[in-house]
Amino acid sequence: MKLPRPHRHDVLLAVTGVLAGLLLWSLGLYTTTVRELLPAWAALVPMTVTGAMEMLRRSAPQTALVVGTLAVIADQFTVGNLATVLMFTDLMYAAVVYGHPAMARRLPVTTGVITLVVTLGCVAWLRTPQALLIGVLTGIVCFAPAVTGATLRNHREAAVAARLRAEQTALLAEMDRSQAVAAERARMARELHDMVANHLSAIAIHSTAALSIDTAETSRDALGVIRENSVQGLAEMRRLIGLLRDAGAGQEAVAVPSLDGLGALLDQARTNGSASGLGFVLADERPPGRPLPAPVELAAYRIVQESLTNALKHASPGTVTVRVARTDAALTVDVDSPYGDRPGPRAPGSGAGLVGMRERAELLGGEFTAGRSGAVWRVRAALPAEVEAVEA
Asked: Is the pTM of this model over 0.85?
């Protein structure tokens, strides 16, 4: 079995311990002088073995403690060397600090029991107060280092656990920040699309019409619509910038669109869609005097706005019907557009509008559907009408 390479600090401890033991032996400083069973040099053997085990205190603590225990027991049959005992206490300490968790838990208990048994045995055998000193020395040699090592190990494990908790907290905070940034980016994308797409679609349709039908009257009407939508689009862009600015920087509050503005929204759609043969009808069936949460009104307004934009892009000539109704639990928005072949210019679409409308409804806990039903393209959204439902 190949032993692991010793740590350089352990090698230094081993060399220092052996040199100190040799110095004490050369000076004749023994732990006892009443044992003459073996010659004095025999004390160097357990001292050297214990010093060798010091090199394994960190890399193989269990092996080092077992061999060190045998060495310190053998030392009791010689004149004894204080360096052997001190190095053994370090082996006991290292076994608790660097050993596996089971050893770290058992050694303080085991050494405590050994200390108690030795103390009681010596008192019962010698029947003198000095017998207590043997128990005290036993506790100093084995129990005290084990308890010290256990205390240090507990502090280290607590520090590691605290560091891991701090890292996990930082990771969770970073994840929350990333999710918040992603959510804000999605909100900004929805606002930008909903506020500007309607005007740009009208500009694209009428500019294409002006290029396709080269008459003075058509060009003049198209330029009028283009100018109006350009001005309104610029105003919406300024409003978006106002929304993104820091409210604490002294910026005035920006008005949030509400369902009260649907009439103006449909008037604009009539102007933009007149050249395509589209008519627009609003059926507002909401009961008076029952306000809605601001997020619900904004989401419903944007869903109607995007539906009208899609109708300008894709609907065939006919009537686009917008219906808004409210019950105790929900606000429903229905937009029905003629579906079929459409003559004349079309504005390109990316499909982001449907995604944005669905996200707006789902963020409020509502439902959204869009699809063809016969000759009608139907958009339907059901949004919670109560403040508590929205805030939850």
From this structure: no
